[in-house]
Amino acid sequence: MFGRSLYVLTTRSVTKSAIPMGRQGTFLALNNLNTISNSSNNKLAMVNNYSTQAPKFTMTEKKIEEVVTPKRATSPHLTIYKFPMPAVMSIFHRATGIALGLGVAAVCGISLFAPHDPTYYIELFKTQYPFLVIPAKFIVSYPILYHFSTGVRHLVWDETCKGITTKQVEKTGMMILAITGAVAVVLSFMN
């Protein structure tokens, strides 16, 4: 209904003596609604069945320099508020998903464009930096375990609609953090 009335206003009801701005007569039609609706050939009243009065507003054009934005202080929202544990875990779930995606893309890029296979570079890393092997295994295994565990928890929530109260979410979150941390440490020390 609005599209048709705007079409009627912009194409048929605008007088030729006015200066159009923007599209052909769009702003002009909004500025001159009172004169259009009071004319003898009242097409606006035929299209608009909801009201008998024309809207009382005008549009003006301003330059960007004329617009004044207030200088208000912004709230230090990230520095003074403590995120609840479910929010931190949700953010970390997204971050691990992004990191895992980038890691897979890097391994694929190495497989496609590097002169050797990824296994060659892993063995080279083991021989050049043997003291960094355990931390590197943890850095790789923990995001995989964490993202998988929290993803399974979300699937359980979606399918059963159980365990979504604040206490239960915090309890399962602590369990996920403890289990994934322990399993990642064990995997880090395995050959």
TrEMBL record:
It is found in: Membrane. Gene3D superfamilies: Fumarate reductase/succinate dehydrogenase, transmembrane subunit. One of its GO terms (cellular component) is mitochondrion. One of its GO terms (molecular function) is electron transfer activity. Keywords: Heme, Iron, Membrane, Metal-binding, Transmembrane, Transmembrane helix. GO terms for biological process: mitochondrial electron transport, succinate to ubiquinone; tricarboxylic acid cycle. The chain crosses the membrane at residues 91-114, 129-148, 172-190. PANTHER family: SUCCINATE DEHYDROGENASE CYTOCHROME B560 SUBUNIT, SUCCINATE DEHYDROGENASE CYTOCHROME B560 SUBUNIT, MITOCHONDRIAL. NCBIfam families: succ_dehyd_cytB. This is Succinate dehydrogenase cytochrome b560 subunit, mitochondrial. It comes from Polysphondylium violaceum.
